[in-house]
């Protein structure tokens, strides 16, 4: 029906940051709040989809009608995404940490007389790129790109490099990370759709409506 255009569709969404342990009490993280991804999940459910939301550590309540899977690290997020397949649409909004500590300590690292630990980092899996290359790739794969400079050009490059169908590019030179508003460009194979500065809830609603139009 017209008011539930995503009925029968499974939409898989990642949101929030990841935490990468250094030792049992410390971690590497970023400033993602998860608000944009949670808002998308809420609207997808409201428009009738079955929604799986794979969430990093955030302080947000689960939107109505959404199945939420909490994870901490990028590798846990990747596994949860695989476990949630098949899906019709994937919207990868999470700010996945690019690096993790290669060998996290099993016990708390102690401060010792002026010696500073050297953290050896290793690259995390790219969840979006690997999903795009998966045998069970969803028919519509959407990534996000937070950039401060050359927003559209970098996002167009990212769309191709990661094998996504769309990239939602946002200019984070202001206070988007953790903030309430977002200014986005939708990069598709066909071109660029630039939206005016909007509350994150409105970006989410329009994006989910745009997804529903695409699936018709
Ligand atoms: O960090 P980057 O700008 O490359 O992120 C672009 C897109 O890729 C986002 O949709 C993000 O969720 C996704 N990503 C991912 N796994 C990573 C890094 C980014 O799924 N390790």
Automatic annotation (TrEMBL):
Q: Which organism is it from?
A: Caenibius tardaugens NBRC 16725
The entry's keywords: Decarboxylase, Flavoprotein, FMN, Ligase, Lyase, Magnesium, Metal-binding, Multifunctional enzyme
List GO molecular-function terms, semicolon-separated. FMN binding; metal ion binding; phosphopantothenate--cysteine ligase activity; phosphopantothenoylcysteine decarboxylase activity
**Record family assignment:** In the C-terminal section; belongs to the PPC synthetase family.
- Protein name stated in the entry: Coenzyme A biosynthesis bifunctional protein CoaBC
Stretches the record annotates as Phosphopantothenate--cysteine ligase: 11-216
In this chain the DNA/pantothenate metabolism flavoprotein C-terminal domain maps to 6-213
GO cellular component labels: phosphopantothenoylcysteine decarboxylase complex
Report which reactions are catalysed by this protein.
N-[(R)-4-phosphopantothenoyl]-L-cysteine + H(+) = (R)-4'-phosphopantetheine + CO2; (R)-4'-phosphopantothenate + L-cysteine + CTP = N-[(R)-4-phosphopantothenoyl]-L-cysteine + CMP + diphosphate + H(+)
